[in-house]
Write a structure and sequence with these properties.
By secondary structure, the protein is an alpha+beta fold. It has a single domain, classed as Gcn5-related N-acetyltransferase (GNAT) (Aminopeptidase). Helices cover 33% and strands 30% of the residues. It has five helices and seven strands; from the N terminus they run E-H-E-E-H-E-H-E-H-E-E-H. It has helices at 22-38, 73-76, 102-118, 135-139, 157-168, and strands at residues 3-7, 42-48, 57-67, 82-93, 125-129, 144-146, 149-156. Strands 1-2-3-4-5-7-6 form a seven-stranded mixed sheet, sandwiched between helices. A hairpin with an 8-residue loop joins strand 2 and strand 3. Helix 3 (102-118) packs across helix 5 (157-168). The longest helix has 17 residues, at 22-38. The two termini are 23 Å apart.
Amino acid sequence: MKLKIEPLAQHHDRKGFDCGNNDLNRYLRNTARQHAEKGISRTFVLVNENNMTEILGYFTLSSCEIVVDKLPRKYSKKYPLRAPAAKLARLAVRKKHQKTGLGKYMLVNAIERVLKVSEHLGIFGFFVDAKEEAKTYYGQFGFFSLPDNPLELFLPFATLKKAFSKKRD
């Protein structure tokens, strides 16, 4: 299977996608393209080059501003009161392809995109609002919980760079 990640487009079969989570399915079907058109976020889909309409997985990226007092002191003392960051707003894999490495494949691609953006815009970290069942998954990539919200996860920019350089090795 030859995989490709591309921006969500009209030809992708959004209705046929099912990751087992109604909120994530509904977002892809009803909201993702509207948010892209309005400049709120960007959704990228993972497809097999032999079937470019079937969505195997997707992720959504957006920018955000973080009140740094929410961060552990080790990080909050380094930044002004509010700082720009990137957010992995959603990540989902089609049910029949879960636990096959596609989530990791998309997360690495998302990190690459964030690093590329950081060459032109200030970004100090990568955030994700995780579902309870996904918190451990993100933890294996270096994301950790914020003190006041265990499901709001943070990946410092230094860790992003390190993750990217490991991928290239």
